[in-house]
Amino acid sequence: MGWPSMPDTDTATSAAQTALDHLWMHNRSWAADAELGGPRVITEGQGIRVTDSRGRSWIDVNGGYMCVNIGYGRRELAHAMREQMERLVYFPQGATTEPLVDLAAKLAQITPGDLERSWPVTGGSEANETAIKIARAYHKRRGEPGRYKIISRLRSYHGALGATMWLGGEGGREDYEPAPPGMIYAPHPDDYNSGVPDDTPSRCAVRSAQAIERLIEFHGASSVAAVIAEPVSSSAGAAVPGDEYWPMLRQICDRYSVALIADEVITGFGRTGTMFAMEHWNVTPDIMTMAKGITSSYLPLANAIVSPRIADVFAGSDNIFRQALTFGGHPVTAAVALRNIEIIESERLVENSRVVGAHLLGRLTALAEDHPIIGHVRGLGLLIGMEMVADRDTRARFPKDIQLGRRLRLAFESEGLILSPGDERITIGPPLCITTEEADELTAKLDRAIAKVERDLRR
Ligand SMILES: Cc1ncc(COP(=O)(O)O)c(C=O)c1O
To answer: Are both 53 and 84 inside the same structural domain?
Structure first.
């Protein structure tokens, strides 16, 4: 079975078949995809829209994995890439290159506080692996070798590699056990899902920060290297912590000499209506990681930017941070990042994220009045979460066998939306170039799709 509305061209069928035969796709089953006639193959993109190999146009609601911040089809980035490739395609870190140096300076300028030294890598997981290694090595170099434990929050996501896959999460990692030692899990500051009667963002923020302090004390501060957290977590449905949370985390980390790592892999580069989300709370972490929006995903680049308090411990010539990654800091990716940041700034996309984000949040909140399965809507800028419930009063979720996420995805597809919700929430993070009219178009499509699912559920 294919997509009935689509002209079934030979090329489309052949690309889908080749994918079924040879490609191991992220989080997908090729057996299940085969029943659908093969995976969707995307061939073009412009703004917030993409076209597939059968010629159908879609709104890519989350711009890839919330990463195509400036939108698809910007030739300026292709030109920047080509220019740098023709001049110098690569040189490893034993020497360095002009675009990378310029990018490091630019990042020092636009990140909060005294974050000033960049360790470039190729993806968000690598950036967080690097941040953890730097935090652990920092404590060893300054004479506290016992600090190796990392505190992360349940339901957060920090990556899929060696150590990062054990940070945050909600389980489902049995295949990869044993877990590395020293992983400590704290509660997420999400008042809607805390289970505490009459909870508020503020009370939940204070409680959740205090829980981290208690964990540090319980495990012994002399064994804890770092706390890692996203300013606003996409994987936890864009729960925005109460304003107390981040300043308290900063104070707690200072009190116990624990490094504070802010994972801005999703929130960086305008997603929440400020260039970096930590600006909302005026808090500077010791290390900040970034990826995705740094190049709007036109090329793979990520980074861990570090404060001098941590970085300077590695300054001595016999004291260097030992890590080399072949593609980390690739000059072509750096040239693209610089041009991408220029576009974000000159087209005021951070402001657009704030303004259109507030508009979309308002429209989606209004949708909840007509749709009883929307329990709660929250978010910041263009990072918005909708909590889906079977009963709004009790906040009970639908039983797993209802497969709410699958039903919603199919209904979204019938409206021309690429958007994969879970069974409990829909998280929305479109490209930052989205206009108010496009946000309204998206809302109307979500409205119809959710109404269809509700009708089906009533039957
Ligand atoms: C907050 C956060 N951190 C880290 C990562 C991992 O990034 P990557 O997929 O580039 O390895 C992601 C990916 O979605 C993320 O959302």
So the answer is: no
pLDDT of residue 13: 78
Residue 5 lies in a domain: no
Beta-bridged to residue 264, according to DSSP, are: none
Q: Which of 346, 366, 382 is the endpoint of a domain?
A: 346
Mutate to test the pocket of ligand 1, among 266, 272, 383 (most ligand atoms within 8 A of CB): 266
- How many whole angstroms from 64 Cα to the centroid of ligand 1? 12
Cα 273 to middle of ligand 1, angstroms: 19
Which stretches of the chain score pLDDT less than 70?
Answer: 1-9, 12, 93
CA of 47 to the centre of ligand 1 (A): 22
For residue 219, the domain's CATH number is: 3.40.640.10
Indicate the top mutation candidate among 155, 265, 269, 301 to test ligand 1's pocket, ranked by most ligand atoms within 8 A of CB.
265
pLDDT in tens, 381-421: 999 999 999 999 999 999 999 999 999 999 999 999 999 99
Question: Does 47 contact ligand 1 (Cβ within 6 A)?
Answer: no
Sequence-ordered strand ranges (E) for 18-132: 42-46, 49-52, 57-60, 117-121
Structural domain includes residue 25:
no
Side by side, the strands of the sheet bearing 302-306 are 117-121, 302-306, 287-290, 259-263, 224-229, 149-153, 183-186
Residue nearest atom 16 of ligand 1, based on CA coordinates: 266
Q: Which domain covers residue 381, as residue numbers?
A: 40-70+348-458
Domain count within the chain: 2
Predicted local confidence at residue 8, as pLDDT = 52
Whether residues 302 and 355 share a domain: the answer is no
Answer with the one of 302, 330, 346 that is the final residue of a domain. Answer: 346
Per-residue pLDDT at 5: 47
CB 247 within 8 A of CB 285: no
pLDDT of residue 3: 41
57 and 80 in a single domain? The answer is no
263 CB under 6 A from ligand 1? yes
Can you list the alpha helix ranges (DSSP code H) found in 88-158?
98-110, 124-141
* Atom 14 in ligand 1: residue holding the nearest Cα: 65
